Amino acid sequence: MKKKQSKKKTQNKKKKNYSNKTAFANLEKTSAPTVLSPKRSSSGIPKYVADRMARRIFFTAGIPTILGMSVFVVSYIIVTRNIAEIPPSSTIAISALFFLLGLAGLSFGILSASWDKEPGSFFGIENIPMNIQRAKAAFKPATQNFEENS
Fold it and tell me: Is residue 147 part of a domain?
């Protein structure tokens, strides 16, 4: 078995000091030339719109999803305390309805968010057709988008 080296032995070893000129000389010779591309502007969702979408999604999808999970807990409490006899199929059906409502709320939260600097209306129903057009345009091939713009 090998013994561990003491700290004194490792500290006594001298480090080789290279000058900047010799240290990076070989690096410059072997590296491939890099081409820097100009920074492109992002065509993603602006931060204020993403924050607005997140708030809408929290209320329209988060609350129904939490209710869908709490159906199991409430059903368990009711059955174990002999308050009422609930069939498991109805528990699953009610929970599934809440989860579907949460899925619809997710879509609504994304599509109803205004892309303007101002928040817009409370429900944002007027923004849905415009945001559906934006989503369709995002999934078109790049050549079709280019032809429409020119």
Answer: no
